[in-house]
Amino acid sequence: MTFQWLKHGKIFDPTDYVSSNEHIGVFAQSPQAMVFNDFVRIYFSTRTRDPLNGKYHSHVAYVDMDKTLRETLAVSQHSIINAGELGCFDEHGIFPFNVVRHQNRILAFTTGWNRRVSVSVDTGIGLAISQDEGKTFQRYGAGPVMSASLYEPCLVADAFVKSANDVLHMWYIFGTGWKQYAADSAPDRTYKIGYARSTDGIHWERNEAQAIVPDVLGPQESQALPTVLYHNGRYHMFFCFRESYDFRSAAGRGYRLGYAWSEDMQTWTRDDSQVPAVGSAGEWDSEMQCYPHIFECDDRIYLLYNGNEFGRYGFGVAELILP
Fold first, then answer.
1. What does the pLDDT look like over 31-75, one tens digit per residue?
2. Contact indicator for 33, 39 with CB cutoff of 8 Å
3. DSSP state of 85
C-alpha cells in the first residue's frame, strides 16, 4: 500500500498569540492530539524566557480546534502543569507532552529536561494525571518513571504511549552518547527508538539499548518522537530523524520525517517514501519536518507535525487519503 497525503498547511502559529497571551511564547513544538466528543485538543510545548537569567523555559499549552482542524475554538490561558522543582529532572521544562486515556483516566507522559555543564541537557520521562478532562495535570511524583540506566546512559525521552487490552505500550528514545565532532563546537548527541510496556504507567519493562527502527544514515542517525497508529492489521510508526551533528545550519542534515511498519510492535520495516512531501521553497515546511503525531478522528487519519526551525512558527497537518 502506498500512502497518499493531502496537506492542509499550517494550522497554528504561536506568533499570533504572543502579544495577547502571556502563556504562549515562541515555538509550538510537538503537537499531540486528544479527541473529545465535539473538538480536538492539541497539546504543544512553547518557550518563554526566564526573567532571572534570560534563558528559555519550556512549558505546555494547548489549542482546542473543531474536528476538521480548520477552526480554532480556544487557546489555554493558564499553566497546564506546574514547573518542575529545583534540581529535578524537569526543572527547566517539559517537551514533549504525550496524553493517553487508560482505565478511565487521562495520563500524560512528559519529557522533562534539565541543563548540564559538560553537555547541554539531559532528560527523563515523567508521569502526570488529569482530574479535569485534560485541562490541567498533576505530577505523580517529583521524579521520572523512566530515565538513564545501566545500558541507556542518557537522554531517555519522547514517550509515545498506546493503551491496548489494559497494557500500556511505549515507544521512546534513548541516548547512545555524546560526541564532540569538532574542536570548536559543543558536543552533540545521538539517540535511537526503543520499546517498553507497563500495566500501571509507573513500572516499565524495557529491552534496554535495543534500537527497533533500522537507520538509513548509519550509526550517527538520530531518531526522535515516535508516534504509532494501528490500522488495517499493521502498526504504522512515524518519527523524525537527522544527522547527529551539523544539523542546525547545513542544508539537508536537519530533521525530516521517517516511517516504518510492524505486525508485532517491536520488529519494524522502514520505508521513508510513505511520508508527506516537503514543502516548496519558501513554505513553512520546506527546510524541515519534525515532531510528528498520528491520530484518528471521525474516520479520518491526520498527521500533525512541525516545520522549519524546529516549530518556531507552529505546526501543520496532513491527512491520509483512505481508499
1. 999 999 999 999 999 999 888 888 899 999 999 999 999 999 999
2. no
3. P
